[in-house]
Amino acid sequence: MIRPARIARDQRFDPTAVLLALPDPLLIVDFEGDIRFANSAAEQFLQQSALLLCRQKLKDILPFGSPVLSLIAQVQLDNSVVSEYGLEIGTPRLAVQEVDVKVSPLPEMPGCVVVRFDPRGMATKMDRQLTHRGAARSVVGMAAVLAHEVKNPLSGIRGAAQLLEQNCSVSDRELTRLICDETDRICGLVDRMELFSDPRPIPMGPVNIHEVMEHVRKIAHTGFARSIRFVERYDPSLPSALGNRDLLIQAILNLVKNASEAVADGPGGEIVLGTAYRHGVRLAVRAGRESTKLPLEVSIQDNGPGIPEDIQPHMFDAFVSNKPKGTGLGLALVAKIVDDHGGVIEFDSRPKRTVFRLLLPLVATGMEPEQ
Q: Which residue in 18, 59, 92, 232 has the most C-beta neighbors within 10 A?
């Protein structure tokens, strides 16, 4: 039996060191609303140093009328622990995000309270990861069934219509041509579905993600998105991704096309392409395998009207689309490609700001191409 490590009796114990090491953002706020303490996670969360935070009041950092301030007032009045879930927090330095907040009194410091923020982003991403992988697997099974049960009978129907066309009147030929056109359309849809049913592992190697992004931008800018402004926010120091160049182009191109369609109807359409290095992102992306680091982030952001809330939970399911002529296969294919790479796709959407993010693995040491 392994005994837990203990601090030696002659070793001085510093509680402040424990608070500083906590992974959750934590503040101590006094009765006047002044910040008395901020741990390292709070510095990262609020994007200010502890020294600067402790010179301010909490109300000067949070938005006007933030419910966090009401929670603090309630705890100071009742001397009880209060929790609130799903609050939106945003500052001039911090993008709006959803957090859980717990406020508790600090008996050793009368009038002071401890405010702990629990960002819900990663938990939400984990839930979405499982949902998107399930959606991709369901499309794979559906594609195999469609290829066998639908495509073969359609060939017979089209052949019969062509035979009838040879002996029917001119007015009836319009109907036989309609049959042929519709069977061709359905076969084309099944062909797209068959992209999901290939069980073979994809060949992967080092991929310069910025070359992929630039290739996609050129395709979009000279074609379907020629009237849309592109903004590039890249981290030039990123190492190579582990992936398949052609499939990554296909996935990112689908997302850029969706973004262009979202902003096409309004003036000032803009698409922001970004890359970043995400420290500490490590997920178990395959059952039964050890966790994998996914530090490379690719983002596609648009300033369109946003995704309707009622379809957001099903965005990556097949045949789900808010476009009048959409098939609902584009994002399902993106989900499968990202899944095949062992990555994660997630999104945030509200009016004037929709962002899709891909989290991808890096190449292993020694796989980098020679310069």
A: 59
Q: Please report, for residues 35, 111, 201, the alpha-carbon distance to residue 64 in angstroms, rounded to integers and kept in the order given.
A: 17, 22, 52
As a whole number, mean pLDDT of residues 32-47 equals 89
Residue length of the chain: 371
β-pair partners for 45: none
Are 302 and 270 in contact by the 8 Å Cβ rule? The answer is: yes
Q: Which two tokens stand for residue 142?
A: 């559906």
CA distances, 280 to each of 122, 283, 297 (Å): 11, 10, 12
The enclosing domain of 58 has a CATH number of: 3.30.450.20
d(CA 252, CA 328) in angstroms, rounded, equals 16
68, 86, 119 - which closes a domain: 119
End position of a domain, from candidates 119, 139, 157: 119
| 188-241 pLDDT tens trace | 766 655 655 566 678 899 999 999 999 999 989 888 888 899 999 999 989 999
Predicted TM-score (pTM) of the model is 0.56
Domain range for 84 is 18-119
